[in-house]
Amino acid sequence: MDKKDWQERGAGHRQRLRDKFLDQGIEAFSDSEIIELLLTFGTPRRDCKEPARAALEELGSLPAVLDAPYERLRRIRGIGPKNIFALHFIQGVARRYLKQRIKGRNYISSSREVADYLIHSMRGLSREIFTVLYLDAAHGIIDTEVLSEGTLTVNTVYPREVVKAALDRNAAALVIAHNHPSGNLRPSSQDEQLTRTLYLICSFMHIRLLDHLIIGQGDQVYSFADRGLMDSIRDECQKLTSSLV
After folding, report:
1. What processes does the entry annotate via GO biological process terms (predicted)?
2. Most CB contacts within 10 A, which of 116, 204, 215, 224?
């Protein structure tokens, strides 16, 4: 097969993938086919089947491929800078889409969409990040913001910055979230102390802290509220404030 025949065969394969998506949607695709088609956005005249398979075998899953840093992807044979740009660009588009989709939604009724956004934005990171969701009085989502990066403690997440940001947005309630790169969902003593401190300071400003979410690996999410920890923290803070009166 000469070069022209090979290129025409590759072009036909890529067109079949596009037609398959248009006719049947993303559910008809394997993870390998999804990665392959994304890689072709970077090198449209090149066969990307083998690099896609190699990436999936090396990294283990579609999310891991999309979350992988530049240098890790660059080590996979057949994947170059233009392919990596395509992967990271679609990852960025998905993140923005999920973030904008939850704005204005009621937090309680849209908890799954919120979890999807947080999982997508925090999963696979090598460092901890601290995100705040600002809610109005009806628990509609006003905005989301990353306020801190690095190991989270009361000393690195400044409660006054959280409260100031909430007041700037006229927020009546908050949900805080951070990730555990290790994948261990169990909250640390620092996590619990941070939640107590924020709950107490927010209560003085008539802002409700509704939940603290921990994002692990995959689709794992730990909710302080679901585990009853927010009720315990509320009771502790109420006892403390009543003793000060």
Report:
1. proteolysis
2. 215
Note the pLDDT tens digit of each residue in 116-160.
Answer: 899 888 887 878 899 999 999 999 999 999 988 876 554 477 888
Q: Which CATH architecture has domain 105-244?
A: 3-Layer(aba) Sandwich (3.40)
pTM, to two decimals: 0.78
Give, to the nearest 10 degrees, the angle between helix 159-168 and helix 189-204. Answer: 40
